[in-house]
Amino acid sequence: MAEVACPFCYQRIDGSTLWFQCLGKGDADHRGCEPGPDATRRNMTGFTEIMRPVFPPPRHQRLRPVRVAWCPNCGGRTGIRACPSCHTPVPPNFGETASPMIAMFGGKGTGKTVYLTVLANELRSSDLRRRFAADIRMTGDGQGGFKSPLEWLEQNVDRMFTEHKLFEATAAAVNGRQNPLVFEWRGEHRRWGRPPVYRTSYLSFHDTAGEDVGTLSGANDLAYVGAADGLILLLDPFMLPGAREKLRLPPSAIRSTEDTIAVVDRLTQSLRASNGVRGSERISKPVAVAFAKMDAFYEELGPEHPLRQEPPRGPAYDEQLGRATHEQVAALLRGWQGDDIEQHLRMNYKTFRYFFVSALGAEPDYDNALVEERGVRPYRVDEPLLWLLSLPRFGVVPRQG
Length: 401
Ligand SMILES: Nc1nc2c(ncn2[C@@H]2O[C@H](COP(=O)(O)OP(=O)(O)O)[C@@H](O)[C@H]2O)c(=O)[nH]1
Ligand SMILES: [Mg+2]
Ligand SMILES: [Zn+2]
Ligand SMILES: [Zn+2]
Description:
With 401 residues, the chain is of the alpha/beta class. The protein is built from 11 helices and 16 strands. The strands form 5 sheets. A 7-stranded mixed β-sheet has the order 9-10-11-8-12-13-15. It has a 3-stranded antiparallel β-sheet with strand order 4-3-7, with no helix packed on it. A two-stranded antiparallel sheet has the order 1-2. The protein is globular, with a radius of gyration of 22 Å. The two termini are 33 Å apart. The site of one zinc ion (ZN) has 8 residues, from loops. Residues 22, 32-33, 71, 73-74, 76 line the site of one zinc ion.
């Protein structure tokens, strides 16, 4: 049993003391429990639907872990586990082994909602599943009210892929809590001469409103990045003056006033504060530094540039190609006088890598917030995630090279 981060409330919990959720079965003398509101879950995660009650495991559980329990209220038997901290039901086998949690962070207007929609859509498609022989599923319960994560995703996908519309700025969540989009990625970890082991990672994406000022974001955001074992840091290249001046962007394409370095620093400070990393040490959590909206630079780079060659979609993360991409993006960054970002990352993080992504694959009509006529054509959006999952410490996705 392991200590794991709950992907719904971001608290570190002990995998051996998970709670149970009543299934409402009842017994010979009692009717099963009815679903009702759960204030703890609402406060911790922003989930507002009704749910069947949860209860702590029987006393002796710590000594002899049990897989089923009987509801103290209705007597019904259940094997559904729930987070002791936020009461959200968790997937079967959650907490039995270390399961890294991956999170995403970025400033306002960076393209987080667009990127998240596209990435989540790819996670639901069969392509990634087939390539990595992975079992990828969206977790959370099926009592989908209007605000369920699945509905959020379907609405967003429909909006972007069918109606070709982009989004309004994400509204700040009520009391700072928003039910995150959680995926469970179970992958096969092959070992020479030994049977494979199966490793699971939780991808918890909460679409932050992203403050536009240099302050730390809300307590929930702090807990979110603090609990993550790996991060995707999405950066907006339009906020780098040296990059912006290479493009002829309409004013409507500029979505923020916060410098890129300030966004990176905000993450660094959040991680240092939430994880108690001393100033003399570097942060050991791996960070995938993804530059979004790179379609805007296609012309500037020219069709022969290596960053414009879409890599083959093989069954493993290509480490060699990943390193080359990192160097190519680093060179771009230097050309944009973004050296301070590189400097900051080197001084503060042990493990980071650059990525070149475009969720839309072509420049939108910024003024009218419309996707380009030919529709959404995602470019290399999955690489940051695949790199993280392929790191030896996680070993959820195989790597080659
Ligand atoms: N060129 C380009 N622009 C993008 C892309 N993704 C987002 N944008 C632009 O960035 C704006 C903000 O995106 P959004 O996802 O709402 O940002 P958020 O505030 O971080 O959630 C969009 O309206 C687009 O103008 C992309 O892949 N390419
Ligand atoms: Mg948004
Ligand atoms: Zn019950
Ligand atoms: Zn929880």
